[in-house]
Predict the structure.
Amino acid sequence: MVQDDIKSNVLTTTLESAINWGRKNSLWPMPFGTACCGIEFMAVLAARTDLARFGAEAIRFSPRQSDLLIVAGRISIKMMPVLIRIYEQIPEPKWVMSMGACASTGGVFDTYSVIQGIDQFIPVDVYVPGCPPRPEGVVEGFIKLQDLVGKEKLADYAPAPAK
Amino acid sequence: MTAANILSKIKENFPEAVLDMTEFAGEQILHVRGPDILTLLTKLKADGFNFLADLTAIDNLTLGGYERFAVSYHLLCHQTGERLTVKAYIPEEKPSLPSVESLWKTADWQEREVFDLYGIKFEGHPNLIRIMNPDDFEGYPLRKDYPRLGRKERSDFPVVDRGIQKKKS
Amino acid sequence: MTRVTELPLETDKMVLNFGPQHPSTHGTLRIIMELDGETVTKATPEIGYLHSGFEKLGEDLDFNQYITITDRMNYLSPLCNNVAYALAAEKLIGIEVSKRTEYIRVLMCELSRIADHLLNVGMLAVDLGALTAFLYGFKLREDIYDLFEIATGTRLTTSYTLVGGLMRDIPDGYDKAVLKVLDEVDKVANDIETLLNKNRIWQDRTKKIGIISKEDAISYGITGPMARATGIEWDIRVNEPYSSYEDFEFDVAIALNGDVFDRYLVRMEEIRQSIKICRQSLEKMPSGDVIVDPGLGYSLPPKDEVYNSIEGLIYHFEVTMPNRGMTPPVGEAYVPTESPNGELGFYIVSDGNRTPYRVRTRPPSLMNYSIFSKLIEGHMLSDAPAIIGSINVIAGELDR
Ligand code: SF4
């Protein structure tokens, strides 16, 4: 009797997948939109490609309340220290999406003041190509990121051994 | 007064300040000596060119010109709708000229921009500091002898250490 | 006995850092404010967080290549920048474009103006706590993006113009699509105005905030809707017409108080006038080519001519080979245009080579924003988003 009850009412899983399931379906993004890509990111949030469908509509502008940093737009040498500071302020676990050619590689701006890819300095999990990426592309990037989050191992978050 | 009248009068009154007067594609360009720019623009402003549309500089390193740097002022007269470009030339050894911030407040930021990108000093400017580049930036990027790709300033940042071990997947 | 509220409240001076990462700074503005209680006593804007070397880049790209860069300068109305740069280059080189090109350019510029103003009003409303106007505006903006996509192939980075014409003609039936969107714009503009104009909160938060006088507007180099809200009757489309603007009938929107509310009113009226201009340009659209004759050596001939005729092949190589192609005379040209934000000018100096010697953009945002510290002084901290929103600062153009 009791046995049957449990079977139909309780779902067993590992703690890891339960946590990952929770995390991936409620990502709280913080948009770091500096340029044109930031405008396209607004379009992603607006009615047509509603990001709320993926559980990520809770846009936070404070790094302390978010777990996904979306870098949308070119990062100049004056902005880079700010970006690094913001990245460091996000509590673990955290992910970074680099949206658009500029954030990923510098794009068309091969000049003295544009960082040629933020991944030289901070870890990036998903790159969305395009200049600017179409909203659909950003959504695709989101789904990819959710897959990634779903596959994470909790053990990864152990502190690194001291060098 | 029309622009042509004003220009001929300027040339009469300030013979040694005015280097030349040219026309290109229907635009009047007045070439003047750098140190006299404030007096000339004060006069032009009184004569009706009441709006400073744009202020910028050109590095004449390979183009040639009277001097290495030219600072150009684009003026507009709201009454007649005429435009006039004034170019003030200053040498490389002493790149400085009087500030026109006292005439137009808009010159404040624009002169700071020229200072930042060309290293031209504006005497009498209230707050001449870099505006576009970080304060510790060295060099003047829009000069022709500054490489477009910069001098490594764009790769000069620390790599963030997350303090955790995470496998690359 | 004095009532508690009449006692002066002792406050210390406080320095507040606003931005560069703050939702109402629209990207990358940073302002260092000195506060006395809630009143701003001094504000120092710090810009340059998006400085990307546009002008240096322009010295290494040829005239047509640089058009792709101009999109990225103003991402709310890229087509206006495309047109402005093309006009400057054409003036420098001495190219006359066809009437049809000019009309299509006008159509595109005005559609951009509508999109820009809709987004601006929407963002201003969001910053002041009213989300509905933003959602209304953004839905329409998507529709206008669709129109751009039909004509240019992309939503945002359009690169539609070429020096000497346009990348391609507008497709058949485009006018119907445009008219449909225009009707919608008309309706939504009314909706937004019904929501906001008589709204008590909106009025309280925008009226008598950030007042600019006429003299200040001229001294600070302010142009566009911001200047017209102070009563300056100056619209480059009317006073120094370019690209056949003299053929169109429209009114210049003007207000007298120069505060945030008036800037909003001017923008809404400009949307209406732009609708009018778009309609006229569709009605009167002349026929013809949208690019100058390839024989002049400024534009590539159609591909089937290149493959099938010797002239086509020669013209093609004339344009594409190094040391050939578009070589302007030695000289300089400054062309002012009326972009949604104000006077957008391109100043090109040429030394006779394929690439310009110096490209300078006169960014309306820079001049418009420079008055900010004066506007905010003496106001409450909570008025800062209203003032920034009404200036419509576009960081890409501000910092270049
Ligand atoms: S990738 Fe393109 S659209 Fe995005 S910020 Fe860079 S230039 Fe702008």
Notes: The mean pLDDT of chain C is 84. Chain C touches chain B at residues 47-48, 51, 53, 55-57, 59-60, 91-92, 94, 216, 218-221, 232, 234, 239-240, 331-334, 336, 343, 345, 347, 349, 351, 357-358, 360, 362, 366-367, 370-371, 399-400 (CB under 8 Å).
